[in-house]
Amino acid sequence: MDQQKIPDSELMFNQLKLDFKNSFDMKIERVPTNSGEVVLAYVDGMINRDLFNRDVITPLKSDSFAGDIPKSILTSIDKVDDHQKFIIEILNGSLGIYYNGERFISDIRKWEKRSVETPGSENATRGPKEGFTEDLLTNTALLRRKIRNENLVLESRVLGRQSRTKVVIGYVDGIANKEVLALLRERLDQIDIDSVLETGTIEQLIDNKPLIPLSTIGMSQKPDVIASKIMEGRVCLFCDGSPHALYLPELFIENLQRSEDYYHRAPIATFLRIIRFIGFLISVILPGFYVGMATFNPEMLPPSFLVTIISSMEQTPFPEAIEILFLVLMMELLKESGTRLPKALGSAVSIVGALIIGEAAVNAGIVSAPSVIIVALSAVAGFIVPNLNEFTTIYKLIFIIFASLMGIIGLAAVLVIMITQLSAMRSFDIPIMSFFHKNELKDSLLRFPTRHLRFRPASIQRENFKRIGK
């Protein structure tokens, strides 16, 4: 029999039992009233029990109940004609009500969620400390608090055939890049997958170059960061169950920028950005440069430093390239173990492990002291630009391998390849290295005073690009 025409409450009760496979947390109740029997269905733990008892059960069992559900229920209520939509809304946390052949949905959702806290991966010395949570509505509300504008559009859609995860596209109408927005919608429509549990899954599915170690889609847990990106013409993406919001397109230079740069004075922000750029170069190039110098081009080193390296190399059985690769591997192992362990124990393991292993390896004559210093300096410099961790790790190894084979020539070859690859990469059809426009140079590696940042990035917003008046 067609589900839309089932008039009897007992048949609907049995149908819902069948639909939900008798799961223990799916509560399906038959409530007798003056005008007949009402069937209620909800997910235990996802509704507000106080509202349920006060605004639903009490009116239904009242002597004055005459069979008019919309007028009797004290909470907001909507009529649903499609049975499948009825099921989905119940699974989303709403209360399903069936009476006299009609289906209704009441939004009395309430479940446990993490409070708004400071994101641990984006510590800031100045600026807002709040961060997104795993609750989608909380995240969109935090964004609304930053952008109190009726033109802020939040489009909702569902991804995942089985998980039916809600995702939200956020942008400001009139400011957002229309081509980027259209391309994002197109790629989201092409996603056909069983489950989407985190924005990382969406990022990989909408990225047209998933094998490149550098992501062309930005990510943040801070509402002020996402709000600032949206006001520059970008588009953001939220996923229910994830505290990370995506924004696109992302330019390469943004990996060297932080939110507090715009809260500090211009000279301090510029200095910090230059420090991050130097840290990036040290992290990715220094180990390979050291291997190339020590192996093929020792004449380019200062004599005093060369004597130290030669004396250290004479006491170790392996070439410099093997030593550096061994130490880089050990550093990555310590970094991974420190990340996965509990916070207090992880930091202790990372610091003590590095000291003990490094000291023991030098004393045992397995590696030289200069190699330990070089790898440690490279690792510390890499922590300055955590967004580029995967990129620096991969290219660091490539620099070491080519430098051990061809010296400075190999180093230069990989450098050209890296710059060429970065120049060819695009984020939603926008080159990630397109920050050389005269207006964008004021907010790239250098940051001019705020009153001079009058225009949005020309590579992202080509129409409504003025953001500061005279």
Can you put this structure into words, describing what you see?
There is one protein chain. The chain is an alpha+beta fold and 470 residues long. The protein folds into three domains: 3-106, no CATH class; 136-250, no CATH class; 266-427, no CATH class. 44% of the residues lie in helices and 13% in strands. The chain has helices at 9-19, 49-60, 69-72, 83-91, 136-146, 178-189, 199-206, 223-231, 266-295, 303-313, 320-340, 343-363, 369-382, 389-406, 408-424, and strands at 26-33, 36-43, 77-80, 95-99, 102-106, 152-159, 165-172, 218-220, 235-239, 245-248, 426-427, 430-431. The chain has a five-stranded antiparallel sheet, covered by helices on one side. A five-stranded antiparallel sheet has the order 6-7-9-10-8, with helices on both faces. It has a two-stranded antiparallel ribbon with strand order 11-12. A hairpin with a 2-residue loop joins strand 4 (95-99) and strand 5. Helix 9 (266-295) runs parallel beside helix 14, helix 11 packs across helix 13 and helix 11 (320-340) packs antiparallel against helix 14 (389-406). The longest helix is centred in the middle third of the chain and has 30 residues, at 266-295. It is elongated. Mean pLDDT is 86; it is low at 1-7.
In short:
The protein is α+β, with helices and mostly antiparallel strands and 470 residues long. It has helices at 9-19, 49-60, 69-72, 83-91, 136-146, 178-189, 199-206, 223-231, 266-295, 303-313, 320-340, 343-363, 369-382, 389-406, 408-424; strands at residues 26-33, 36-43, 77-80, 95-99, 102-106, 152-159, 165-172, 218-220, 235-239, 245-248, 426-427, 430-431.
